[in-house]
Write a structure and sequence with these properties.
The complex is a heterodimer of chains A (126) and B (278).
Chain A lengths: L5 H34 L19 H9 L3 H29 L3 H23 L1
Helix pairs in contact in A: 1-3, 2-3, 3-4
Chain B lengths: L2 H22 L4 H11 L4 H26 L4 H22 L4 H20 L12 H5 L4 E5 L2 E5 L4 H18 L4 H11 L4 H25 L5 H24 L4 H24 L3
Antiparallel strand pairs in B: 1-2
The chains are: A mainly alpha (126), B mainly alpha (278).
């Protein structure tokens, strides 16, 4: 097997980013079509911040919403996939650096992942 | 307004924002927030959430293309992402305690700075001066130029890192990519060739935005009904922009027009922030 090089990592990263955007945006689009179909005539007002509807504010509600074909739940699932895309890119960078035996950069990449994880947890607490 | 009408208006507006943002290099996020808040009366917190999502979509989409061309310095990006993600986390966490008026004013100031930055002359600088820290961190790199590989070295790693921390806070606080600040750090402080700094900055924007998006997602800033047309519109606009860029080499007059529009929007944000009508 050939040694894993920077150019291989570039190809993998490029593929992950492209696929992630394509898949998540498709999900968002499908959800959007369903949302417009079901709620197209509903009146909306975003002038006062009140958070998001209950059923899209937690993973359980979103999953249930997907199965009952609720447009906004599907959009929110697509948005979560989109947010995950660059994070997955970082995970694969870490694997790539391990394969290159570049342990300094493996550590740097893991640190970035830990920061994102901390952000996720502290957001939940606040 | 009904869902259909609002979605269509936002879709068209976001498309134009993405198109102009990509043609001028300012990014779509900086136009989306004034569009939503000033023209459509959307609460700035919802606008920040939706903008952040569009930032992740466009930066990931274009980074995919740049990374394959081999211009992006992945190690440099990875290293500086420590600063931008930490900054973004802090920015998103403190956003809750900062009055929206202040956020609007700060947004206006950053917007004007970005517009000025986009008008600046871009000189291709190549430095070979060695920095010990850059050497240790393997930050020096090369990229394919018209006459073969161009190697460059990175200077003032500490200063650049600090500036990135600030760029991260601004990104997390305002829901924008703050590409202008990232390029300022890499171009102005670390003396990296322009081509490398823009593509590497773009590469970092997605991760930076994701670090604050995980906070905003849980705080209800990211509304699916609003984010859907914004993300789709900005991404399609940015794609069209990159296609046009390939065909037309110069877009000098467009930059000037855009900078004027952006400055006008920025002063509106500042005015509304100060008078407390945002």
């Amino acid at each position: 097997m050939n040694k894993f090089k920077d150019t291989d990592m570039q190809a993998v990263i490029g593929w992950i980013l492209r696929t992630g955007v394509l898949v998540s945006m498709s999900v968002i689009f499908i959800g959007g079509v369903i949302y417009l179909y079901r709620h197209g005539q509903t009146h909306v007002d975003y002038s006062k911040f009140v958070g998001v509807p209950d059923f899209v504010s937690n993973p359980g509600g979103i999953i249930q919403g997907i199965f009952t074909l609720r447009g906004r739940a599907i959009i929110q699932a697509g948005i979560i996939l989109l947010i995950a895309t660059p994070v997955i890119r970082v995970v694969f960078s870490a694997i790539g650096f391990v394969m290159e035996k570049d342990y300094l950069y493996t550590a740097i990449t893991v640190l970035v992942l830990l920061i994102i994880l901390t952000s996720m947890i502290s957001g939940h607490a606040g | 307004m009904s869902v259909t009408v609002l979605t269509l208006i936002i879709l068209v507006g976001s498309y134009l924002a993405g198109l102009l943002g990509s043609l001028t290099g300012l990014g779509g996020g900086v136009v989306i927030i004034p569009l939503l808040t000033i023209l459509l009366g959307v609460d700035i917190q919802y606008a920040i959430g939706a903008s952040l999502i569009s930032v992740i979509a466009t930066s990931s989409g274009s980074a995919a293309a740049y990374v394959k061309e081999g211009i992006t310095n992945i190690r440099l990006g990875m290293f500086l992402e420590i600063a931008t993600t930490a900054g973004a986390m802090v920015g998103a966490l403190i956003a809750v305690y900062i009055p929206t008026n202040f956020i609007a004013v700060l947004f206006g100031v950053i917007l004007i700075l970005s517009a000025v930055m986009s008008l600046r002359k871009k000189s291709q600088q190549i430095h070979q001066q060695k920095s010990v820290l850059a050497e240790k961190l393997k930050l020096n790199g090369s990229f394919p130029g018209p006459t073969g590989e161009v190697t460059y070295s990175v200077r003032n790693v500490g200063g650049g890192f600090f500036m990135m921390l600030f760029a991260g806070v601004i990104s997390g606080l305002l829901g924008i990519g703050s590409g202008a600040l990232k390029v300022l750090a890499m171009d102005g402080i670390m003396r990296i060739p322009f081509k490398v700094s823009t593509t590497t900055s773009n590469f970092m924007i997605g991760v930076t935005a994701a670090a604050s998006a995980v906070v905003y997602l849980q705080r209800g800033y990211i509304d699916p009904g609003l984010s859907m047309p914004v993300a789709i519109g900005v991404l399609l606009g940015a794609l069209s922009g990159s296609k046009i860029l390939v065909h037309t080499s110069s877009s000098g007059w467009l930059r000037v027009v855009f900078a004027v529009v952006v400055t006008f929007l920025a002063s509106q944000m500042i005015y509304k922030g100060i008078t407390g009508t945002i």
